[in-house]
Design a protein that fits this description.
The protein is an alpha/beta fold. Helix content is about 40%, strand content about 20%. The chain has 2 domains: about 260 residues, Aldehyde Dehydrogenase, Chain A, domain 1, CATH 3.40.605.10; about 190 residues, Aldehyde Dehydrogenase, Chain A, domain 2 (3-Layer(aba) Sandwich). Strand 1 and strand 2 form a beta hairpin. The termini are far apart. InterPro entries: Ald_DH/histidinol_DH, Ald_DH_C, Ald_DH_CS_CYS, Ald_DH_N, Aldehyde_DH_dom, ALDH_GabD1-like, GABD/Sad-like.
Length: about 450
């Protein structure tokens, strides 16, 4: 794939970039290593001041970078501005909390005296240059939720961003430079995916984080395992959205629409499989389908657009194949399901019912505004359907019955359970999944410690 901005609303190529050559890549790896040696010694107060400045600049740039993101990957421009605001919020959160999250931990002396120690301390130290392989769907947020904690911990970052969002990738490097971070603290590497393996094998790169597809995660994890390097992976998701009889159906259906089509449906944590108790199935389905039909699809730069185009032609083709396969297998398409005429990579909000386990749409992630609708006879069947997936990123549960909540929290195989609300990431809450959705955690104290050397300091008597 060329490194280029291609407007998904009309298919026009706006700007292309030449990949970095080996000499430039080597220069940047040397710079990252050299910068880390000094940046690691800076204080939390110094790092926090720099990150606060980056947040201020991002707030000032919100409108401009929002338009860039929309032009590069098609999200509605209001959502793009909201993403920029969320990134600034995360920067300020880590600037305020990192020192406490990484404070030395000292066990009670009585607990370690039998080790011969008069005192023991656990200290969190930075690892070094960390490679971040990031996707296009949240081109600012996916990067910042790595970069903010990594920089506050004293690491330096090397970003290999998706090849279809090069302007956003370069903006991020410039943002941290303008904020005053030392040159080399955060660098964007304009290289193709074929360069990732060699970069990860370089001894100067100490760890890697990847958000993206399962195949990409397998490749990075394989190389990192061979090189004995720490990784965090956030991969695909096929999140269940479970509705039980006691739920507020009007509210559940309203949130369900947003949960499915946020970011044009191209979100790992978007609800994708809607599992509804048979007692309220028809009532929920009616509300949900009506809400999906009512969405305004159009130019993502227009303020009232709710669903824009998919980010790539290949992405639309993949989505169409899943819907068509389900239709051939006997599924009913309750709304949408047909490619519209005209330019751009648009696909309508779609609801598919009567899905069975043999259909691809049941097994694979639908990365676009397509929902699958399931009927469950009771709580046990709802859990079985929800867990019948290779993924386990997050989940949504709608019920007012506390006993049911306890059961879902106990039995759902996911990294998160959101009760009577939509899955969302937040700086203070750990984020990540299980099964083929990956491992490790981003955000919160768990996220900032992922790329730290957890060091035991032992003092003799």
């Amino acid at each position: 794939m060329p490194i280029a901005t291609v407007n998904p609303a009309n298919g026009e190529t706006i700007k292309t970039y030449e990949p970095m050559d080996e000499e430039e890549l080597e220069r940047r790896l040397q710079l990252a290593e050299a910068t880390f040696r000094t940046y690691r010694t800076t204080s939390f107060a110094e790092r926090a001041a720099l990150l606060e400045r980056a947040a201020d600049l991002l707030d000032e740039d919100q409108a401009d970078i929002g338009r860039v993101m929309t032009t590069e990957m098609g999200k509605p421009v209001k959502q793009a501005r909201a993403e920029a605001a969320k990134c600034a919020k995360a920067m300020r959160w880590y600037a305020a909390h990192a020192e406490a999250l990484l404070a030395d931990e000292e066990p009670d002396p009585s607990d370690v005296t039998d080790s011969g120690a008069s005192r023991a301390v656990v200290r969190y130290r930075p690892l070094g240059p960390v490679l971040a392989v990031m996707p296009w769907n949240f081109p600012l947020w996916q990067v910042v939720r790595f970069a903010a904690p990594a920089l506050m911990a004293g690491n330096v970052g090397l970003l290999k961003h998706a090849s279809n969002v090069p302007q956003t990738a370069l903006y991020l490097e410039d943002l941290f430079h303008r904020a005053g971070f030392p040159v080399g603290c955060f660098q964007t590497l304009l290289v193709g995916s074929g360069a990732i393996d060699d970069i990860l094998r370089d001894e100067r790169v100490r760890a890697a984080t990847l958000t993206g597809s399962e195949p990409a995660g397998r490749a990075v994890a394989s190389t990192a395992g061979e090189m004995i390097k720490k990784t965090v992976l956030e991969l695909g998701g096929s999140d269940p959205f479970i509705v039980m009889p006691s739920a507020d159906l009007d509210r559940a259906a309203q949130v369900a629409v947003t949960a499915r089509v946020q970011n044009n449906g191209q979100s790992c944590i978007a609800a994708k499989r809607f599992i509804v108790h048979t007692d309220v199935y028809d009532a929920f389905a009616e509300r949900f389908v009506a809400g999906m039909r009512a969405l305004r699809v159009g130019d993502p730069l227009e303020e009232d657009t709710e669903v824009g185009p998919l980010a790539s032609e290949r992405g639309r083709e993949d989505l169409e194949e899943l819907v068509d396969d389900a239709r051939r297998g006997g599924a009913r398409v309750l709304c949408g399901g047909e490619r519209p005429e005209g330019p751009g990579w648009f696909y309508p909000p779609t609801v598919v019912a009567d899905v069975d386990r043999e259909m691809r749409i049941h097994r694979e992630e639908t990365f676009g505004p397509v929902a699958t609708l399931y009927r469950a006879n009771d709580l046990d069947e709802a859990v079985l359907i929800a867990n019948d997936s290779l993924f386990g990123l997050s989940s949504n549960v709608w019920t007012r019955d506390e006993a049911e909540v306890d059961r879902f929290v106990r039995d759902l195989e996911a990294g998160g359970v959101f009760v009577n609300g939509m899955t969302a990431s937040h700086p203070a809450l750990p984020f990540g999944g299980v099964k083929r959705s990956g491992y490790g955690r981003e955000l919160s104290g768990h996220g900032i410690r992922e790329f730290c050397n957890i060091t035991t300091v032992w003092h003799g008597a």
